[in-house]
Design a protein that fits this description.
alpha+beta, 2 domains, Alpha-Beta Plaits, binds zinc ion
Length: 114
């Protein structure tokens, strides 16, 4: 068994589990409900972890995760407030803290569908 992915956001980990499982890869989730339940441990220590059950599936699962991560944003975005170019992994402008329009739109889009 190998650790595939871990994130403090349980929903993101669960989302990746769905993606990998739908590809026919057996995975298991650890620490899924650990948040706040592990006395004394800081939250960082109990992030939900996604494990691949069969080591042979690890590389394929990793590729699925990476392509899913990469699909989100691959190009730098330009801050509409100060005009600075930002790395796609930044959720807000590193210079002025302004959030890009695309992220705002995405959040709004989600709400409309709930
Ligand atoms: Zn800016």
């Amino acid at each position: 068994m190998r650790l595939l992915y871990s994130n403090e956001n349980r929903l993101i980990v669960a989302n990746f589990r769905n993606i990998v499982e739908s590809a026919g890869i057996e995975v298991t989730l650890k620490n899924e409900f650990a948040a706040g339940g592990m006395g004394g441990l800081p939250p960082l220590e109990v992030w939900p972890e996604l494990w691949v059950v069969n080591d042979a599936d690890y590389e394929r699962a990793k590729t699925l995760i990476e392509s899913s991560l990469g699909a989100k944003s691959t190009v730098p975005w330009r801050c509409t407030n100060c005009g600075e170019d930002n790395d796609p992994s930044f959720e807000a402008c590193w210079k002025c803290g302004h959030e890009p329009e695309s992220l705002c739109n995405r959040a709004r889009h989600k709400k409309n569908h709930r």
